[in-house]
Amino acid sequence: MDYVPYVTSLEFYLNTKRVQLDNVSPDTTLLQFLRSSDTRLTGTKLGCGEGGCGACTVMVSSLPCHPGPLPASPDLIQHTAVNACITLLVSIAGMSITTIEGLGTIQRPHLVQSRMAQYNASQCGFCTPGMVMSLYAYLRSHPHATQEDLATCLDGNLCRCTGYRSIIDAAKSFAQDDLPTPYDDDNGGLCERGEACCMARDNTRGTCGPRPPIAPLDLTLEPLFPSPLLKHSPQPLHFKGPSCEYFRPVTMEQLCKLKKTHHHARLVGGYTALGLERKKTLRMEGTYISTGHVADLNILEYDDEGITIGAAVTLTRIQGFLEEITIQRSDD
Question: Is the pTM of this model over 0.70?
Answer without folding.
Answer: yes
